[in-house]
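Our consortium's second objective concerns turning raw sequence data into structural hypotheses that experimental partners can test. To show how far this objective has progressed, the report includes one record in full. It was chosen at random from the queue rather than selected for favorable results. The single chain below, 395 residues long, was entered without modification.
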Amino acid sequence: MSKKKVPMRNCRWYSQQILASAAILASIPAAAGQGATTSPDKKASWLFAPIPINSPAIGAGLQWAAARVFPINSKDEVSPPSTVGIGGVFTNNGSRAFVFGGRLYLKEDRYRFALAAGTADVNLDIYGVGKIAGDNGAYVPLKTKGTGVMGEALYGVRKSVYVGLRTQYRNLRLSLDRSKLESPDVVSQPKEQVASVIDQIGDQLFRQQTVSLGPRFQWDSRDSVFYPTRGVFMDVDMDFFGTGLGSKWNYQYFKAGFNKYHSVGKHQILAFRGMTCAAMGDRVPIYDLCLFGAMNDIRGYTAGRYQDQRMFATQAEYRLMLPSSGFLGRFGVVAFAGVGGVGRKYSDIGWSALLPGGGGGVRFRLLKKQPINFRLDYGFGNVGHTLSMGILEAF
């Protein structure tokens, strides 16, 4: 394993967890406004969402949100209702997070604004950088504490196409979890491999601030935010971190994803997803490297076991809701498979470095009249398996 000190990245996933409940506040209530919890005359309503979670990275627990869904202008028949609320997450390994956020839609959906701010205390394991580190499986327990703020403004240049800017601020503190460092699970690992992981993150164990500003592009022609049966969703993010903005380091993070949905029958859907990311610069913090297995890319791998400066993942999923008009019709099944990889450069991701994954899951429709599913997925990869659950589809 290389001794080159590359600041690690499990914490891009961590920083996402600082704002994890913002996903509920932004996507679920916003989508709910498109017919799920608000009446046709767009009256304001409340949404309460307790969501069980099970993550190999932070354990099992509950993600929750309470939000107010309301129209900015009652005469606007185009914009989805806006959302403001609070949320959080807590798990059995001691991880905690709390967030306040909102998403606003104005002028017949011409303008979209989002804001989220939160704080978190997350416990997770760090495996090191690169595929070799992930294959070795040696890790050290890390405690991460901090606060974060994210703001976004998008403008609709044409139907289904939006462009804009996003900024984020994070103030984090990383430290080794000394109480777990001497546990039998850690002590039983090869000492030289554990020392190598600690060496990689040694100069990261202090408080650090990162600030970014960058463009964002979205193309969204899905027929449903809850359960798309046709259309595409493309999302391109570019985050430029600079000392001139107040960031400790200068570096860049790029991520692009493309989803395609195709109906093959009244109850059957084929969904495809491809994504890639690149972390560039002389000083890329560990929490802003590309993280394999996060955000359901790809299921079957613990988020953070494989991470590096480049990554790609592609997957396909077959979705079937049981063809019944009764209670059985609220159940469904899925099967998924995919492959991806990580490397310092894209050229490093050869055939032997690929990381395949696959599995299946069950679905239960929570509302009779709206396609909002509770999701339970079992995935397996080269080095183990994962069990994940949540609301809405994996992608």
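The partners drew two points from this record. The chain has one domain: 10-391. Residues 10-391 form a domain with the Porin fold (CATH 2.40.160.50). Both points have been shared with the crystallography group to help prioritize constructs.
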